[in-house]
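STRUCTURE:
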């Protein structure tokens, strides 16, 4: 069975900056042969060619103008991209602009957690983004590690991300979510990412955050279209699918790692969420790869 490769932002020259631009042809030489869990943000703007890319079990069609966006923690599976050309931007989460001008009532206007993994940009926006990336590349060439250069490049990155955030606001269906609900939802999601392995009850998250369970559910319904309990279950099921597809752990071991002391309870949960047993899901994934 395959294992998931954890990939971190690694560039000693740009460590203080936390941002890197790279051509897809150069990236292609370094692609892992196993599924990869990123610990940074990755933007890929396709400029030529076609293909497919898999992010957390969803296959996305690639063609000129496609923007791929991968968040930290997501698992992607690389394929054959020899005919693909693209611009790539890698962003360490620690490098994201912490500028009050992108804050509104305590909510980050970028809302990266809401971005779609794959969108098709308009021709005008493609031009704008390519120009922004070209400017980043040019300034990278003269980067000397000074605070002035770091500030310059971070502001150029902010400009790029804000343009894309405005586009994401147009294409997603949650643009009517109130600032209060979005903040509540994000606090919940942040805690869920820390505790989902062992805490599956909505009551735990509500008490920990100081909200009523109904408040958390309303926020989740506004943002995701699901109740908070369903959001919890979907997160646990996603990790179970990742482990079953990309590790050699037994079904019982996967269940135990996700907080189920009895394998039968894990199997019932997985079947309810995914529609098949864990073993059948694993077998189906093996068949798809072959």
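SEQUENCE:
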């Amino acid at each position: 069975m395959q294992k998931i490769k954890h990939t971190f932002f690694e560039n000693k020259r740009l460590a203080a900056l936390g941002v890197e631009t790279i051509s897809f042809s150069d990236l292609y030489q370094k692609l892992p042969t196993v599924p990869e869990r990123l610990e940074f943000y990755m933007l890929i703007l396709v400029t030529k060619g076609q293909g497919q890319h898999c992010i957390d079990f969803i296959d996305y069609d690639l063609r000129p103008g496609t923007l791929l966006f991968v968040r930290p923690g997501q698992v992607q599976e690389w394929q054959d991209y020899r005919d693909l050309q693209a611009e790539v931007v890698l962003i360490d989460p620690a490098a994201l602009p912490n500028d009050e001008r992108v804050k509104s009532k305590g909510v980050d206007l970028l809302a990266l957690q809401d971005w779609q993994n794959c969108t098709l940009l308009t021709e005008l926006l493609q031009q704008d983004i390519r120009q922004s990336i070209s400017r980043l590349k040019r300034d990278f060439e003269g980067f000397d590690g000074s605070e002035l250069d770091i500030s310059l490049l971070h502001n150029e990155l902010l400009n790029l991300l804000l343009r894309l955030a405005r586009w994401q606001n147009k294409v997603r269906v949650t643009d009517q979510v109130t600032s209060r609900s979005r903040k509540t939802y994000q606090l919940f999601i942040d805690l869920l990412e820390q505790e989902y392995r062992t805490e599956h009850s909505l009551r735990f998250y509500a008490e920990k955050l100081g909200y009523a369970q109904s408040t958390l559910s309303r926020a989740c319904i506004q943002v995701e279209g699901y109740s908070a309990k369903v959001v919890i279950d979907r997160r646990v099921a996603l990790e179970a699918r990742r482990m079953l597809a990309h590790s050699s752990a037994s079904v019982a071991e996967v269940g135990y790692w996700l907080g189920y002391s009895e394998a039968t309870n894990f199997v019932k949960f997985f079947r309810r969420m995914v529609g098949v047993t864990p073993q059948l899901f694993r077998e189906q994934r093996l068949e798809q790869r072959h």
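REMARK: The radius of gyration is 20 Å.
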